[in-house]
Amino acid sequence: xxxxxxxxxxxxxxxxxxxxxxxxxxxxxxxxxxxxxxxxxxxxxxxxxxxxxxxxxxxxxxxxxxxxxxxxxxxxxxxxxxxxxxxxxxxxxxxxxxxxxxxxxxxxxxxxxxxxxxxxxxxxxxxxxxxxxxxxxxxxxxxxxxxxxxxxxxxxxxxxxxxxxxxxxxxxxxxxxxxxxxxxxxxxxxxxxxxxxxxxxxxxxxxxxxxxxxxxxxxxxxxxxxxxxxxxxxxxxxxxxxxxxxxxxxxxxxxxxxxxxxxxxxxxxxxxxxxxxxxxxxxxxxxxxxxxxxxxxxxxxxxxxxxxxxxxxxxxxxxxxxxxxxxxxxxxxxxxxxxxxxxxxxxxxxxxxxxxxxxxxxxxxxxxxxxxxxxxxxxxxxxxxxxxxxxxxxxxxxxxxxxxx
Length: 405
Description:
The protein is of the alpha/beta class.
């Protein structure tokens, strides 16, 4: 038996007036996802337990079969795991975004507004130069900055504070940042670094060039998603299956590392709307020849949701359907027996441009079982169906998927 999990990050949404009170998932043309729903088993699950902030870290941890209340320790430690950063017991990892703030004429950061949580999806090469400059000017023996991909980076704080309250920058687009600066024990150090960063970043040649080109400057750093080293049992010890993970995002790749999955990096996988969808699908099919399970994650719908871009989100969903799900459906026929799990990790509603903890739809296709749910589409309406499977504890879905129901 071969298993594949297809995750369209942030695909789920709420009804949108401009779409006639349909969601992007309902409006999009998705014949391949609809095929899985109409010929498989459908249901809904809660990937984000009550009391947790909704995010891809908690949600994907749940989907992989791990109870967040036992194993979640923060987003940044997962990203650190993928990058090979071995956290010590007294070290705290922070996610460090390069962002674009809109400053008033006075230049007062307390009056600044979060214009773009991704600094215009700055290139990795540009970002690396800026983070290295930040580490040179702001880092020391206790504070170390590590460059990552595009706007996504890490800061490691030796003997740092883990309980400080931080806000994800994608939650506050268009809002004054002063209300969302770090708060609590340790906040002073973080705020000081954030306040100093514009003076360092704006004078760098990378940003001077971006401004000349009419691009958004990466003019501030923003800390969030902190945590300490995480420990969790290997997926193979839980389920007896050898797996790989395919994603463009360090977070999900880090999750894979932490549970003993191999990571496959696909050329052209960007974590954005221009990602190499077909390349990821082909890599998944190739991997299944030697492993038992593949976890294939696509970030693009989530990015469109954070940008509040209806057209882009529909396009991302349709690309996911045709280029990923369609390719997988055709390719899986080479295997004798297989199961496919299809789902979003969480909603990223267009109108609020951030994650929510609402339940998401899922569908499971089993090559051995021929079901007929005539006319059932893969979208949020699954949650209203009477003949659906329900998982209030999302981490239990993997048990059900692997063991065959």
